[in-house]
Amino acid sequence: MKRRRQEPIKISSTLMLTPMLDMLTVVLIFLIVNFSPEKAAIKPSANIQLPEAELNLNEVPRIHIELAKDHVMLNGQTLAGLLPDSQDSQAWNILKIKLEELTKESKDQKPQPILLIADKDAPYQFVDSAVAHLAAGGYSEVYLLTSQEDK
Amino acid sequence: MKLSRKRINHETELNLVPMLDLFLSLIPFLLMSSVLVSFGGVYVEAPSYSKAEAQKIENKNDELDLAVQIEKGRVSILGYKKGFETKIEAVKGSFDLKDLNGLRSFLTGLQQHYSKIHSSLFHASAETRYQDAVSVLNILRATQVSENLVLAVGAVE
Description:
The complex is a heterodimer. By secondary structure, chain A is an alpha/beta fold. Chain A is built from 4 helices and 6 strands. A 6-stranded mixed β-sheet of chain A has the order 1-6-5-2-3-4, with helices on one face. Chain B has helices spanning 17-33, 49-58, 101-113, 130-142; strands at 39-45, 63-71, 74-81, 86-96, 116-124, 148-151.
């Protein structure tokens, strides 16, 4: 009696891409929905720990001022010779000049809202001085940047 | 003569590889540029001459203005009538900065008694921790106690 030769079983070796694609689609949609270019532009310095608050940042101003112990930054650029606790009004002139330049560049040429960034342990004096000089320059809309805490 | 018809089997499979390539390049881009920390913000107003003048004209008798002050670890509140001209003795409170629930319920109580709380003027002493100031400002905004939340700042030469 002759034995039948076993035929080799054909195994399909196609990679199943559909589940992977499903997963990637979900991840992509989630990322696109949560993507905010304005918020991505906010980059506080590494040594700054933001204060916590429950309110959401609905409007993201384009002008960012960072107040740290050793520097004042305007849109990521350090303003040479200006410290947040400076009592000398002349020292704050550099901020005023730079802000005027930004106002001229803006569409409506009106003072824009300002986003203030400061460390949670910083003295309030930093914010007080900055807001006083901003108010003197006609900038009356100020947002204080916080990290959002869970309600 | 019979013609035999052979069925041609067309297997149509969607080519998913280019789509996958696109997804795999988009996802790292979005991940890199997305903000992992969720930012929040407290909106305040800096003093403005034109607004102060308008406020004096608009303010009515049944409306209230608040002065909020942080000093020596406590937050104190004083009520005023008519653009901070007349003090209301009944409206005052002092709360510990470590427990701000009292402040929250005090403000909610004020909302029920007065038709409108026009402005809140906020000031903190120079040595106040920024987090403490933000916590109080956050409550003032979150309770929607007043229309305007103005920071009282020092004069600039």
